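Design request, tokens follow.
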């Protein structure tokens, strides 16, 4: 936890906040913090600053909070991703959040098993908990938006062209001719398939919607590896 993320409900006054549960335990077990120490804090969807520990008990830590800096800028990216395996999904969500992605669309695909959509990790509380971990790691405060789309064709035909707009749209797909661009640094949309990749029909539909198929070379990467590699390749601010 490089930054303690504060929700509106944590504040008892404009400049006082309470840490409980996991965050309070982290102060003791990892940071070895004591009264009088200062830690990095940030308000959800707000500013970043510092919090002085003015009271520390077995159950809570009371902070005197000063928020005076903006969060880091986010890459101008819309990430469209075939729903990963549940165990992998947690890591991918945390990683994408830590890299600054603020808009994530989870999509069904031929190689996505129906059971993936039943995972409790897609429940609102679980999504928030994992995004919080990503924000804390990266010292960010702006919570991503996650959209679920369980029907591939209606999404690609009816919604994707509007999401692309004037953005550079890419679909990562091994075996294609064009290498993934570097230092793109412009509004973009990136599609990433499931383990095993999109099937040819899906790649064709994505291309018809305006996506260019690109590759990362001859090596086939797991989704959890491809996500940070692709995002950091496209945007200098993630390096």
């Amino acid at each position: 936890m490089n930054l303690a993320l504060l929700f509106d409900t944590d504040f008892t006054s404009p400049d006082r906040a309470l840490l409980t549960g996991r965050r309070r335990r982290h102060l003791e077990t990892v940071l070895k913090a004591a009264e009088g120490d200062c830690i990095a804090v940030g308000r959800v969807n707000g500013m970043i600053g510092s919090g002085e520990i003015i009271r520390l008990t077995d159950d809570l830590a009371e902070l005197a909070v000063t928020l005076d800096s903006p969060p880091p800028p986010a890459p101008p990216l819309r990430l469209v991703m075939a729903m990963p395996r549940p165990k992998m999904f947690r890591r991918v969500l945390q990683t994408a959040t830590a890299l600054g992605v603020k808009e994530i669309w989870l999509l069904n695909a031929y190689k996505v098993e129906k059971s993936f959509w039943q995972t409790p990790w897609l429940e609102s509380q679980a999504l928030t908990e994992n995004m919080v971990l990503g924000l804390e790691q990266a010292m960010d405060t702006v919570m991503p938006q996650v959209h679920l789309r369980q029907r591939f064709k209606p999404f690609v035909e009816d919604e994707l062209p509007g999401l692309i707009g004037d953005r550079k749209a890419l679909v990562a797909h091994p075996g294609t001719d064009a290498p993934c661009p570097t230092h793109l640094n412009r509004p973009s949309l990136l599609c990433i398939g499931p383990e095993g990749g999109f099937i040819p029909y899906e790649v064709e539909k994505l291309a018809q919607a305006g996506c260019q198929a690109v590759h990362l070379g001859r090596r086939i990467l797991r989704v959890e590896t491809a996500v940070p590699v692709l995002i950091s390749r496209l945007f200098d601010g993630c390096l």
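Comment from the thread starter after seeing the answer: thanks! The radius of gyration is 20 Å.
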